[in-house]
Amino acid sequence: MPSTPALSVPRNTGAVEIVPVPVPDGVELPPLPTQADSWVGHYQRVLLNVRTGELSFFCADWRVFVPVLGGEDGAVWTSQDPGESPVNSINAATRPIPELLMFFIDTWTRVDLPAAGRPRTPAWVYLNREQGDAFVASLVPLAQRLVDHLYRVPGTDDLEWSAESVTAVRAIDAACSRYHQGPRRVGTSPAGLIDFADAVVVAPGLVRREWSERDDTELDDLAEVLSRSTYLLDPRLRDRFGTPGDEGDGRGPKVYGARAWLYAYRAHEAGTRPASRAQVPRAPSRTN
Q1: 215 pLDDT more than 60
Q2: Alpha-carbon gap, residue 104 to 169, rounded angstroms
Q3: Which of 29, 88, 231, 278 is most buried when burial is the number of CB atoms within 10 A of its CB?
Q4: What's the superkingdom here (predicted)?
Q5: Which residues contact 221 (CB under 8 A, 6 or more apart)?
Q6: Is the model more confident about 174 or about 76?
Q7: Of 132, 161, 190, which residue sits at a domain end?
Q8: pLDDT value for 117
Q9: Main-chain dihedrals φ then ψ at residue 28, nearest 5 degrees
């Protein structure tokens, strides 16, 4: 059985500083919904650019009709629905992370809701400009944790999720819930989440020497398989990492960072593999 090399899989630590960006003074936000606007849903969001570190409060204009994505006017959709939810992205563990992440803020309460209304869930009045900026600023530590712990996929410009960064995603998502309404008392434990780099330390028999010979497409396909099945391949992983969390599919966790580890493994093996012996050219035969 080949020994597992102590790989250094690069992280994104220190590459980006999270900066809360206030809503510009010249930007007009839509009015806060009232009881007459009962159809309005979640139009307030947090946007995080993982490349620039910009963290901002965004309001879609709930008065604007947004066509179905893929329709004729894609610009309207883009302007009203920027970014991609990381909740969807983390379930595709090996897909490169979108540059702009979007978190729905679970505000829902109209500004004129009667005090005796007794909502069934905690009330959270839609945020005005100042409140939105303050809420976003409170998320800076979690956003910094998210971007710092992303993996950098060697030889590419891609970023990949890690267990720590997914934990930060879940914490931000929870902070945006009406049940928390901020980062206080939000859990930040990565229990049940696994980095592939840690998995191969606990179970080195998972590693196959032939992985070092695979091309990018083959490694990408392999990373997808490993992200879904590694946890099931060795019982020692359950003992080490505990009970899996539920990521919505009922089958336990995916393993994160498999693609970055595989690319690092291939580069490591290429750097340590002895060069093949050069073939000595034959001396030309003598002619009489």
Answers
A1: yes
A2: 12
A3: 231
A4: Bacteria
A5: none
A6: 174
A7: 190
A8: 63
A9: -90, 120
